[in-house]
Amino acid sequence: MSLTKQRVSYFYHPEVGHFYYGPSHPMKPHRLKLAHHLILSYGLYKQMECYRPHPATPGEITKFHSEDYVNFLSRINPDNLKQFTQQMQRFNAGDMTDCPVFDGLMEFAQLYTGASLDGAIKLNNNETDIAINWTGGLHHAKKSEASGFCYINDIVLAILELLKVHARVLYIDIDIHHGDGVEEAFYCTDRVMTFSLHKYGDFFPGTGHIKDVGAKEGTGYSVNAPLTSGMTDKAYEDIFKPVMDKIMEIFRPGAIVLQCGADSLTGDRLGCFNLSLKGHAECVKYVKSFHVPTLVLGGGGYTIRNVARCWAYETSVLLDQPIPNKIPFNDYFEYYAPDYELHLTPEPRENMNTEASLEAVRVELLQQLQELQGAPSVQMQEVPPEFDLKKEEAYAEGMNDGGAEDDIRDGGNGKTSKGYGDGTRRAHSAELYDGEKDQ
Ligand code: V1D
Ligand code: CA
């Protein structure tokens, strides 16, 4: 781990904001354009490497999704629906579901997925410390099924990429919805720990009970914080930080994937938490403070001006570059009326999570994690033979003995993190995109 400034890479495809789920659908890819323009207008592009990602190929996508499902997504369009009635039911797509068939659906999925894969490859090659793809984070998609506005699970595919180099990958999900697709994909393995905070109880997707801890080898490696409406910054932080400390101590990930769904913010059209940008971004800041290679992704977020505010602010946090509260002039300036300010004020309403319920969640999760400490799989993690690491690095990462020299203190915050291996694979060629306006 180096304590020098962390290098940040940013992945954005200029076409990704042009897709349209339909007039009454809350998912608006246009929000991605708003966020991108806000990031540009704050001048943040000057401090990161900006790339135009490649569209993920069907061959890359079938590393997780089934061939049948990917063929279906590649062939279906709004003009040929009648030929696919049965498959639409089977794969949970169409107007009667959360996942409509819209023009360019597969291309959209290829663009957001390619950006996550490019970010993961850049991290694997040790060419960056933090990779950002605000267009990704579609955590509900399953192997053979669309779900909750998500078609291809770019997160699972990016984690599979990171697992080529890293013995253990931590997935963190601060979207208000449970990260069910990612949890399910890695439910039975101890090489990926998933940690989702979410609203639980009469809320989509209905999974993410605190007792859902994983199965088989993966028992104890799924961590769920079920919450209810009205979560405040303080309440969120009081769960997030202690659980993260314990996860980092016990799991020691070589890489982290952080899904930053913005529907956990105050005033979200679908969400019911009451977080400010600062409360949401505190999680991002905290994850960054561990100095572990991190892929930062978007996710949900339905009050689109606030989604843009959130991801622009979090980009500034990742860059350690403070930005003014006044929104700079940009192509979408009118969206930020009437105050034209960045930060959000939480609503004056009750937090339905009581002190006692929050304490119970925190205590239970810390207890579950403590139980892992004695588990043999933590100390004796097996590394597959095709593992793409130099031997000494794999040894240092997967089998360190907990001695003092294994612990590298982070810049004065008292936390420790462990060393990580760097990869030897080549990244996809990506075009440097230097301050150019969106086309
Ligand atoms: F309000 C709507 C209007 C039109 C179409 C869909 C919705 C809608 C709102 N909330 N759909 C939902 C959720 N679905 C249900 C259905 C009822 N059931 C039988 C299912 O409650 C889905 C919410 C998806 C949230 C997606 C996400 O924010 O987590 C996300 N993360 O990354 C990308 C998206
Ligand atoms: Ca979540």
TrEMBL record:
The keyword Kinase does not apply. GO terms for biological process: epigenetic regulation of gene expression. This is Histone deacetylase. Belongs to the histone deacetylase family. HD Type 1 subfamily. Its main location: nucleus. The active site is at residue 140. GO terms for molecular function: histone deacetylase activity, hydrolytic mechanism; metal ion binding. Residues 25-317 form the Histone deacetylase domain. The keyword Transcription regulation applies. Residues 376-439 are annotated as: Disordered. InterPro entries: HDAC_I/II, HDACs, His_deacetylse_dom, His_deacetylse_dom_sf, Ureohydrolase_dom_sf. A divalent metal cation binds at residues 175, 177, 263.
